[in-house]
Design a protein that fits this description.
alpha+beta, three-stranded antiparallel β-sheet, 3 helices, 3 strands, 39% helix, binds L-tyrosinamide
Length: 110
């Protein structure tokens, strides 16, 4: 079969080289969970609003995640590549600090 999806640097596409199967060089990036932690002070509405704003959840899903954190102590906001996960954590923690809430977020490898 012709090498249609050609990632092979040894194949110049002229059809004169060795017919070897190309191996995709791309690797799937590792994924990281953004976890949100419960506390006794952050208002439920603020948590719901944060989940809507930074994790693009609708009201129903944001409420479900907030209640899970409230009852179990921790919940998953989303799963992202490392840089995106770290950015979300920073955004949520900055937002919470601005409003003087102790809301905490962390990143954990999947
Ligand atoms: N436990 C908080 C309260 O009763 C609500 C809350 C939910 C806080 C989730 C943080 O990540 C959190 N007001």
């Amino acid at each position: 079969m012709a090498d249609q999806n050609n990632n092979n640097p040894d194949d110049d596409g002229t059809g004169t080289g060795l017919a070897v199967k190309s191996k995709p060089k791309t690797k799937k990036p590792s994924l990281y969970k953004v976890l949100m932690l419960n506390d006794d002070y952050t208002p439920m509405d603020f948590v719901i609003h944060s989940l809507e704003r930074f994790f693009k959840k609708n009201r129903e899903e944001a409420t479900r995640v907030m209640l899970q954190i409230h009852h179990r102590g921790v919940g998953i906001c989303g799963v992202f590549t490392y840089e995106v996960a770290e950015t979300k954590v920073t955004q949520v923690m900055d937002f919470a600090r601005q409003h003087q809430h102790p809301l905490q977020c962390t990143v954990e490898k999947e």
